[in-house]
Amino acid sequence: MYKIAVLVSGSGSDLQSIIDAVESSYVNCSIKAVISDKPDVYALERAKSKGIETYVFDRKVYGKNISEEILKVTEGKVDLIVLAGFLSILSEKLIKIFSNKIINIHPSLIPSFCGNGMYGLKVHQAAIDYGVKFSGCTVHFVDEGTDTGAIILQQVVPVLENDTAETLQKRVLEEEHKILPKAVKLLAEGSVKIDGRKVYIGGV
Ligand code: GRF
Description:
Blueprint (H helix, E strand, L loop, with lengths): L1 E7 L4 H11 L5 E8 L5 H7 L5 E3 L2 H4 L3 H9 L5 E4 L8 H6 L4 E5 L14 H10 L3 E8 L9 E8 L6 H24 L3 E4 L2 E4 L3
Parallel strand pairs: 1-2, 1-4, 2-3, 4-5
Antiparallel strand pairs: 5-6, 6-7, 8-9
Helix pairs in contact: 1-7, 6-7
The structure holds 5-O-phosphono-beta-D-ribofuranosylamine.
5-O-phosphono-beta-D-ribofuranosylamine (GRF) binds next to helix 1 and strand 5.
């Protein structure tokens, strides 16, 4: 059975989309661990209520050593690490060990509105301020840069004239909850092939 760990920092709605997909058998995998870099976040409650093992490595306590703790829980134990609203930076060592085995969800169409400091409502405000007609979300592999890894899936979402960052975030989040489980499903099935920056889906 394909095994994953999900890393979180907040409410865990993206985590919930994976839990739901596993429960409905859309995704055939086992969530071995949910790891948070903050105590008391709702994502931990979501995991505990399903009997999933949880770990808290408080970024205020562990700082840059957080990746070492994550490795202790994941190395040799899971096939994939999913960053689902996780805000700490992972070490180069961890990223090398899990090369092409870490994915992240970002709430814009990368390479727009991404990179350092671009998270949460700031992403959506930047899209609105720029005047783009479409935004969306992206699932990508994690490399040493911020939001620079090869793109696995993207979904376009229209930006409406009366959108606020909050309304756009809500509409994008609905699509995140579809493409994140879909990416995990494709990876678990072995349907994802990587060639440099290009990702091919479906046995190419
Ligand atoms: C989403 O905007 C996602 O793109 C970002 O974190 C938010 C989801 O947080 N990386 P959560 O899953 O509700 O905690």
